[in-house]
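Continuing the series of single-chain predictions for the mutant panel. This is the parent chain; the variants come on the following pages.
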Amino acid sequence: MKRISALLLAILAASTAMFAQQQRNCGSMDVLDRLKQEDPALEQKMQNIETFTQNYVAKHEHENERVVYTIPVVFHVVYKTTTENISDAQIMSQLTVLNNDFRKLNSDAGSVPSAFAGLAADAEINFCLAQTTPTGAATTGITRTYANVSSWGTNDNVKKATQGGVNPWDATKYLNIWICNIGGGILGYAQFPGGSTATDGVVIDYRYLGTTGTATAPFNKGRTATHEVGHYLNLRHIWGDATCGSDLVSDTPTHNTSNYGCPSQPHYSTCSGSPREMTMNYMDYTDDACMYMFSSGQKTRMQAVLASGGTRASLATSTACNAPSGGGGTTTCGTPSSLSASAVTSSSATLSWAAVSGATSYNVQYKTSSATTWTTTTSTTNSKSLSGLAASTTYNFQVQAVCSTTGSYSAAASFTTSAATSTSCTDNYESNNSFSSAKTIAVNSAITAKIGSSTDVDWFKFSNTSTKKNILVELYNLPLDYDLQLYKSNGTLLATSENANTDAESIIYNNATTATYYVKVYGYGGAYSSSSCYNLKASISSTAFRNDGSNNLEALESAPAFESLSIFPNPVQDVLTIDFNTFEISDANVTVYDMYGKEMLRLPVSVNKGSNRVELNMGGIANGVYIVNVQQGKEIRTQKVVVNH
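Parent structure:
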């Protein structure tokens, strides 16, 4: 058994950034803690705001209709490289997401489970690009500033011209959103109501803003800004930033802690009463594709800060969305005409219209002819390609030009998608969207199946034998970017294959225990095809599968790195011992996170084939509940541990 010294290093920015590629990391609570230390009066200010909010909620929580508020927004792009200087189109895509998400016009609103559908709310909050500067001049609502700063962190320097950043425009009249390279794995952070106007607003890393350009999966649907603006409007994380904590909202269930990735539903908490967790809420930590609702209680809480007497009420009366008086060099937009649709298929179409003089972009709304709400998107040219449409369905669409003033929407035009193309692709395994509904497949024989929607996942199961223990799972002929996972029958994740684009996926698990194994196939970032299938093959053999592909289609994944994990003592006072068995010699990382997902300790280790032991000195960590994460290759094992000195 190999004993590894417990010399622990502080968190490295690069390591955190690597971690954040897989899991959401919001810096708002850390920033709040810092601001409270800098301003001892902030705690009382926030308590006063909370008292006002709770009084407002008590008075208005059962109302169905209230005022629709519009908040002027200015985006400050602070860049060092040309990549960080993101396009207007990317910023406009973020504005569209904010308007869709806060008005319940998001295209994935229909994915809310029936258990929560009655709670999903239109927050009745709109966002517009500012058209007037604080001095009364015309503006596009976007500023661009070069700064010789590689990363800004969360110390608010990006909001200070003296530090190379940009001072906020009057925070009582504008929602200031800074776009920059935050670094440290932080996707974004916001200032809660009550803080100084000198630093008020939201900061988003340039890699996680909007839906195009530099937007990086799995945070490429603009939900980082939705989450952070939720904080800006006084929403807390849904788990209350504590184990089984409170987010101060009555209709959101109690969560154990933050959720990551795309949890399957129903997903139950072990808190009192074992409530079903609302993992699709914008204030959880799930991937962008898997968060798509605010609750009615959250709506009321946000409206409280914008209502008369609320701490952000002045935003609701701001005139910054209006063009400057006296002309100010503004251009009044005409109304788009000559709307048409071309290249119409069963699931897509290209919309076009006559260009409007002076237009910097266009807002495009579309819906099925029978729907009552529109889906809104944007374009910087006089055309827009739509995808994911339903076959044999009539759609309406209309277009609005955006200049320094916004014009009127055009009259609606329509088009009808064609019937679904008949193909030989048949999926005989639905429904198999959960571990418990996995369908049995024969080994050593390829099957054909389909990911038919953005929420569809496919589960299968098969068994090896005592004479054929070695396992190879292959996923190929992919229409889109699909990924593959292998699980034990007890639900333990053994391995993941997640190659890019339509590259084949493959997992090898040699010398496996004789048992039933489960396979999960899913679209990366919600990718799906309603018309094209994939092939899946689970093979077992008495001969070990090799990674060079000589005895299989294309084995791209290594054998599972380790099988067992034992952590003790638990609770721990000082030294925590971690024992695990590995199948190969390689590097690994042992990481300790708090219950907010903040990395506390990280120890890179080299492990031997067979038994390994790591000892961690937990003496410098405060009492509480933590997550210990052991990662070798793409495999991860986690376990909660209680520190009690």
